[in-house]
Amino acid sequence: MSLTTDPNDPKLKEGQKNETGQHEIYLVLSEEERAKGFIQPVRNSYVHVGRKIEMKGGTIEPLPREEAKRYGDPDKYVAFLRYPESESPLVGKALTQEEVDNMGKYFGGCGAVTSMGQALSETYARDPKFYGATYCTGCNKHLPVDEFVWDGTNQKVGSIQEIKEWPKDQDEPHSLKESFKKEIEDLINRHSLENGSDTPDFILAEYLTGCLENFNKTLQAREKWWGREINHKVEEK
Ligand SMILES: [Zn+2]
Predict the structure, then answer these.
(1) How far is the CA of 13 from the centre of ligand 1 (A)?
(2) How far is ligand 1, taken at its centre, from the CA of residue 135, in Å?
């Protein structure tokens, strides 16, 4: 197995073909990008817990065979989970028998713990949504990241959570924002860009950082409203 930091590396397409087993090559963020700071702790192993369907305050209704056809194979879906008004615009979800039997619980996971190298772990820490799927040593294949939790936690792989207690040997994430702001400040200063508005560089840096944060927040709020996830995945073939 090898690593590349080039998303256009021709070996990536070739090396991610096999459905089982590890890929020959994985994409990671460059050292420079990782050095900008982590927004989640660096974690090296995850557990395959499987999927979990949440009721979200909804009700389970029978799904007539005629209607089940709309979701594909009518033998596969047996019920419909109808979400409450609060989940709108989402209406609900067709359920398989296995999903009905395991509502609110993890199921289908093999329980294996998979460990990975530092570059991959740091890529997750810098950009938790970088990968859409990850390898399970127990199943010997790649599966969606939300079937896994970080070992020793309840946090799903690929999720961003407020971390109450950061590992003692790791830098806390606000240093990322601070270092970014400092660089902007220096840049404004170097190009004398504060002259245009007669505003001190540190106030301009604060303003620009605020713009970026506001943009991120707005985009996330919009995507959440539409039930979409902001995700840029490594292409899985
Ligand atoms: Zn597994």
Answers:
(1) 24
(2) 8
Q: Give the Å distance between the CA of 80 and the centre of ligand 1.
A: 27
Q: Are residues 45 and 128 in the same domain?
A: yes
- Per-residue tens of pLDDT for the chain, all 237 residues: 899 999 999 999 887 777 788 999 999 999 988 887 888 999 999 999 999 999 999 999 999 999 899 888 889 999 999 999 998 889 999 999 999 999 999 999 999 999 999 999 999 999 999 999 999 999 999 999 999 999 999 999 999 888 888 888 887 765 556 667 878 888 998 899 888 899 999 899 989 989 988 998 898 889 888 888 765 444 443
Q: Would you say residue 215 lies in a domain? A: yes
Q: How far is the CA of 36 from the centre of ligand 1 (A)?
A: 32
Same domain as 65, residue 34: no
Beta strand extents in 97-211 (DSSP E only):
107-108, 113-115, 133-136, 141-144, 148-150
- Is there a single domain that holds both residue 70 and residue 31? no
180 and 209 Cβ atoms separated by less than 8 Å: yes
Domain count, the chain: 3
Which residue range is the domain that position 65 belongs to?
59-101
- What's the sign of the alpha-carbon dihedral 221, 222, 228, 229? negative
Cα of 120 from ligand 1 centre, angstroms: 19
Q: Which of 150, 185, 212 is the last residue of a domain?
A: 150
Calculate how far, in angstroms, residue 137's C-alpha sits from the geometric centre of ligand 1.
6
